[in-house]
Specification:
This protein is mainly beta. It has one domain: Tumour Suppressor Smad4, CATH 2.60.200. 8% of the residues lie in helices and 34% in strands. The strands form 3 sheets. The chain has a 7-stranded antiparallel sheet with strand order 1-9-8-13-14-2-3. The chain has a 5-stranded mixed sheet with strand order 5-4-6-7-10, with no helix packed on it. The protein has a two-stranded antiparallel sheet with strand order 11-12. Strand 11 and strand 12 form a beta hairpin. The radius of gyration is 16 Å and the shape is globular.
């Protein structure tokens, strides 16, 4: 699947993400990190669930999304009119030196991101002043097995999942199967072989988007 660009939404959501680009390869652990025994078969009317992480620790419970557009934002200074998951309302889990790096990134999230279920797929709009980094098996079918990480600049958008072209089942050597309906988004900090953070679980603040099982 070729990553699509939504120029028609630029006026409402910022520039389209011609800027979004692959940065590094990612090695993921098997399946979804966020489920923690919560059965995906129990879904009702939500189209996705959100799990917020600080480093390797999940913070709070899964956030169920039933509205077609949801904001994930920092809270402090984010301004009115946002509806969704406010990260400042969650208690931090990191301790000691790690708590400081988490605090710094949390303070930069601001307006954060908007996830929108539209007729042509699931779109991410970066409304913050910092880049976000995205890994989704659905981003590029030709490179799906490499699980590339994409950088989305402030004010840009990216189609992170196209339901008309479901990603194939993926299995990585020494890792096993990877959930093809799980998208990972890191705020401000990237990860991969060229970074000091080799895995998403080393990122201070990140989000896992669990898309509803295919009907």
């Amino acid at each position: 699947m070729v990553v699509a660009i939504r120029a028609d939404l630029a006026q409402d959501h910022g520039e389209s993400t011609a800027d979004a680009r692959r940065t590094d390869h990612e090695r993921l652990t098997a399946g979804s990190l966020a489920t923690d025994g919560e059965e995906r078969q129990s879904w009702e009317t939500e189209w996705c669930r959100l799990a917020y992480w600080e480093l390797a620790q999940r913070v709070g419970r899964q956030f169920r999304v039933r509205v077609r557009a949801v904001d994930v934002f920092g809270g402090s200074g984010a301004g009115p009119g946002l509806s969704g998951l406010c990260l400042d309302a969650l208690d931090p889990r990191a301790e000691n030196a790690q708590a400081e790096q988490v605090r710094k990134i949390r303070s930069k999230i601001g307006l954060g991101v908007t996830l929108s279920l539209e007729s042509d797929g699931v779109w991410l709009y970066n409304r913050s002043q910092e880049p976000v980094f995205v890994s989704s098996p659905a981003l590029d079918a030709a490179a799906a097995k490499a699980l590339l990480v994409w950088r989305v600049a402030p004010g840009h958008c990216l189609c992170i999942f196209d339901p008309s072209t479901p990603p194939p089942a993926i299995s990585l050597p020494h890792v096993g199967p990877v959930d093809p309906r799980s998208v990972r988004i890191s705020f401000a900090k990237g990860w991969g072989p060229k970074y000091s953070r080799r895995d998403v679980t080393a990122c201070p603040c990140w989000l896992e988007v669990l898309l509803a099982p295919a009907s």
